[in-house]
UniProtKB/TrEMBL annotation:
One of its GO terms (cellular component) is cytoplasm. It catalyses: [protein]-C-terminal L-amino acid-glycyl-phosphatidylethanolamide + H2O = [protein]-C-terminal L-amino acid-glycine + a 1,2-diacyl-sn-glycero-3-phosphoethanolamine. This is Cysteine protease. Cysteine protease that plays a key role in autophagy by mediating both proteolytic activation and delipidation of ATG8 family proteins. The gene is Atg4c. It comes from the Eukaryota. Its EC number is 3.4.22.-. Belongs to the peptidase C54 family.
């Protein structure tokens, strides 16, 4: 009887701590994000337009908001090789397909500490993981890939979330697009109980989808998991519980990729710019370096550029530069945020940045088990933040599969 009582106390305590963490470390009180239907939305090199009636009505429960003219971007981005991708439903599917990595609790204890959670201190490591994950998704899946189950997120199993109350917030995609008048919104078609059978390509893609997520699992053996990143951070004088800046995280990611032993990762390398300068010869040398097997071969490269966009505050003169970067097909996002809060910036609309927020405490997921739940690794709702609030310290990421891609990316970045 006493043991049962103790178990109940522990359950109540666990629920209380989950609720507390989600109040303290998340965006649960700010559930709606508003998008204009009159301005383009850029997401990691793709451009979406919500302007036409047909595209607008395809949106699941979006509302609407005022705003700027589409033509204002013509002069800035007409030379950028950006794919025009169309409607709101496609944007939702694309955004949700990105890998979302957040605070976790109850994971295996971090070596050298008593910590079993990164709530309150691990946000920059998490945004660094998201940027690296996007690079690996481009490498193994390509930019056109989307998660087939992305639009089923609102009907996902609540057990994959930290608490049932927060589960309700996954409907925050119900937010957006206001116009002069509220148009009639058509309900999104319901999916049947079973999707069609996957073909060989889809099966292959799902294997890599799961494999990439597993590399970021919260266990000591995961190549890019929190435990390993903290070990590499010790050489920079950082320990678990410390604040990690975007530049430090860039070097930690480089080391993690260098030390990764999975054969699948031997074809990827990371280059970190020195003093905001990318030396072409050094990048090409990395791409043409030998594999561990001793065989020569061109490696894909993820280029990380730590920069500071101003002094105490971000200089608004850099706004167009940041927009240009996020419009490039080679961009894998920005490790940034606002002071003391790191976000993963993946796009923009008008003068607001679109981001994924790691400040959401979720329960540990054992990614070593077969068919582990995927829902908590995909963000159901984009968030927006005014560029003016951006912290000046950030790290910009690019992915280039070949030397030719790097040379082309260099040309595009020079235009920006």
């Amino acid at each position: 009887m006493e043991a049962t009582g103790t178990d109940e106390v522990e359950k109540i305590k666990s629920k209380f701590m989950s609720a507390w963490h989600n109040m303290k470390y998340s965006w649960v009180l700010k559930t709606k994000t508003y998008f204009s239907r009159n301005s383009p939305v850029f997401l990691l090199g793709k451009c979406y337009h919500f302007k036409t009636e047909g595209e607008y009505r395809a949106l699941h429960s979006f509302q609407s908001s005022s705003a700027g003219a589409l033509g204002r971007y013509g002069s800035n981005f007409d030379k950028i090789n950006t794919e025009i991708s169309g409607n709101v439903e496609e944007f939702r599917k694309d955004f949700i397909s990105r890998i979302w990595l957040t605070y976790r609790e109850e994971f295996p204890q971090i070596k050298g500490s008593a910590l079993t959670t990164d709530c309150g201190w691990g946000c920059t490591l998490r945004t660094g993981q998201m940027l690296l994950a996007q690079g690996l998704m481009l490498h193994f899946l390509g930019r056109a890939w989307v998660w087939p189950d992305a639009l089923d997120m609102d009907s996902s199993d609540s057990e994959s979330w930290t608490s049932n109350t927060v589960r309700k917030l996954t409907a925050s995609f119900e937010a957006s697009l206001t116009a002069e008048r509220d148009p009639r919104i058509l309900p999104r078609p319901q999916h049947g109980p079973a999707r069609r059978s996957w073909d060989v390509t889809e099966m292959r893609n799902e294997v890599y989808h799961r494999k990439i997520i597993s590399w970021f699992g919260d266990s000591p053996l995961a190549a890019f998991g929190l435990h390993q990143l903290i070990e590499y951070g010790k050489k920079s004088g950082k320990i678990a519980g410390d604040w990690y800046g975007p530049a430090v995280v860039a070097h930690i990611l480089r080391k993690a990729v260098e030390e990764a032993r999975d054969p699948e990762l031997q074809g990827v390398t990371v280059y970190v710019a020195q003093d905001c300068t990318v030396y072409s010869s050094d990048v090409i040398d990395r791409q043409c370096s030998f594999m561990d097997s001793g065989k020569a071969g061109t490696k894909a490269v993820i280029i990380l550029v730590p920069v500071r966009l101003g002094g105490e505050r971000t200089n608004t003169d850099y706004l167009e530069f940041v927009k240009g970067i996020l419009s490039l097909e080679y961009c894998v996002g920005i490790i940034g945020g606002k002071p003391k809060q790191s976000y993963y910036f993946a796009g923009f609309q008008d003068d607001s940045l679109i981001y994924m927020d790691p400040h959401y405490c979720q329960s540990f997921v054992d990614v070593s088990i077969k068919d582990f739940p995927l829902e908590s690794f995909h963000c159901p709702s984009p968030k927006k933040m005014s560029f003016k609030k951006m912290d000046p310290s950030c790290t910009i990421g690019f992915y280039c599969r070949t030397v030719q891609d790097f040379e082309k990316a260099s040309e595009e970045i020079t235009k920006v």
